[in-house]
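Hello,

Our lab assistant flagged a job as stuck in the queue for most of the afternoon. It eventually completed. Since we weren't sure the result was trustworthy after the delay, we are filing this so someone can double-check. Below is the sequence as submitted and the structure that was eventually returned. Let us know if re-running is recommended.
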Amino acid sequence: MLPQAHLLIKFAALIINPTCFNIGRLLKWSFILPDNNPRPMTDYPEKNCEIDRLVRHPKLVAATLAGEKTQQRRDGLYAYPGETFVLEEVVFVVTSVERQRIGDMTDADAHAEGYPSLAMYKDLILKMHSGMEWNPDGLVWVHNFKRQ
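-- returned structure --
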């Protein structure tokens, strides 16, 4: 892609959502491999948002501080492995980032997100995002982290 086109796309996305834009959703980009095999990524696209927006809801901040939350799924890339973020003066490090179909999420994943079950996670996500439908083929970025 030409650099000028890349800047134009970023500018258009910024106008649509100036707080945290998602170029991937705007263009329906996909980073799933053709054989549908999950593999660790070493080359990541440009971040869609800053790491300080990764965990923001007060209940999820509390769960992270208590060690009950070690993952955050987002439709955009918020951090690269090795980056750190701070919650109430406690430093956390992103240990890995991977692409996942939301339909491949398990109860264990929901627990790592700070929820007691996948059913509760799904219910709360759909309530938080009015008009959203649960698309099992929808792609998310899974950010794994731990206290540093």
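-- support follow-up --
The delay was a queue issue, not a problem with the job. The result is valid. Residues 3-16 form the longest helix (14 residues). The radius of gyration is 16 Å.
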